[in-house]
Design a protein that fits this description.
It is a single chain. The protein is 43% helix and 20% strand. About 3% of the residues have low confidence. Helix 11 links the parallel strand 9 and strand 10. The chain is an alpha/beta fold and 435 residues long. The radius of gyration is 26 Å and the shape is elongated. The protein starts with a strand and ends with a helix. It has a six-stranded mixed sheet, with helices on both faces. It has a five-stranded mixed sheet with strand order 1-3-2-4-5, with helices on both faces. Strands 12-14-13 form a three-stranded antiparallel sheet, with helices on one face. The structure holds guanosine-5'-triphosphate (GTP) and magnesium ion (MG). Magnesium ion (MG) binds next to helix 8.
Amino acid sequence: MIFIVKEPMYSTEKPTERALLVGIDRGDAEWPVEESLAELQRLVETDGAEVVGSVSQRLKRANARTFIGSGKVKEVATAVQTLSVDVVIFDDELTPSQQSNLEKEIKGAKIIDRTALILDIFALHATSREGRLQVRLAQSQYLLPRLRGMWSHLASNRMGGGVGSRFGEGESQLEVDRRIVRKRIGQINQELRKVQDERDIQRKARLSSGIYKVAIAGYTNAGKSSLLNALTDAQVLAYDKLFATLDSTTRRFVLPEGRELALSDTVGFIQKLPTTLIEAFKSTLDEIVNANLILHLVDATAQQREAQMLAVTEVLEQIGAHHIPQLLVFNKVDELSAGEKEVLIGRYPQAMLISALTREGIPTLINRIELAANADSRVMNVCLPFSQGALVGLAHERCSVLSESFTEEGTVMQLSVPQVYVSRFLPYQLAQDSA
Ligand SMILES: Nc1nc2c(ncn2[C@@H]2O[C@H](COP(=O)(O)OP(=O)(O)OP(=O)(O)O)[C@@H](O)[C@H]2O)c(=O)[nH]1
Ligand SMILES: [Mg+2]
């Protein structure tokens, strides 16, 4: 059965593209097909099109030839006509042959898949040079095995615009051939390396400074940018769209006792995140991989909260960040009732409940970050001679100052010193420590 969201409408305004969604119901209780299609609808809307209907079919696994069964394909083909559909969007990545078979059988509409849609949104939101290069790399890698199938698709896109049309922007049809795409991948990789070399310099500087790095990771729309803004004066764009953030932003964050940390916000994760994107965004994701602590931020109000958490855990594993200490943080609790909060605490006693909007729970979160940051520290009693002004500065900026007094010999301090700095303070250690 086809679930119709909107009847065809006739108006004089420039038409928004009309999309029909198609998914498979695999009987997955964690991530039911309705939820997956609802998320796909949000993706479509983020990309600027309108969903006019959705179709799902109960299948154990996808049909190798046409993803859905042949009867269902006919149903979709009819719906394309009756609902004036411009684009049919499949909720899973189609194989190149499934795509070309579907294109033959469903006339009058573009056929794209979730991956192409996500890549398109990334293209729309990429602002930095690195972001744009990474998106182009992912698009080219996606395009390469599909070149034959994409020929007509690209040609019609270029004329029609709309969903999926930011593929190969500015390219002439002739250029779309395997050799050229491969060459382009090579060039993008080269350019990316240059951009990333510069970034590496900054990152290495942070690394060698021994500064403690905290990364905010989580599902798209969890409120990562809002949290960065709440903790620092980052003023990162935060809005109710999927994949608002593509580039990572790192800001200085000063703990109440004076120690400085680096706090990063980065690209959000999603179910079925295309592997081409994960590979292309490796350097952006390195912000997470190189962190000392990950704040796993969860939208506590999300229908599919648990499934979203699982998706995030899986991506963290995929990028090799699963061994990094994590704090589980539920955001948007301003929208939960007292009862709902209790259920959440009962289920995740180790988690923190916050609201980036009302700042509820933020002080507790800062305390927990501080505790984690101090976990690799050692308490030292030192007397820093007045000639060692720089070391006094280091103590204030990178260590926790537990006590401080001034004597004739110098500044006597009790410090919680991160391991990386211990050797710097050793020469000035007071006798009581060596006991
Ligand atoms: N009610 C409520 N809304 C919030 C809170 N934090 C964030 N939001 C809203 O959630 C939406 C997404 O917030 P962002 O900070 O952009 O989320 P993000 O995780 O950075 O999203 P992407 O960059 O798209 O992955 C915005 O509309 C925010 O205003 C919160 O604590 N409470
Ligand atoms: Mg964001």
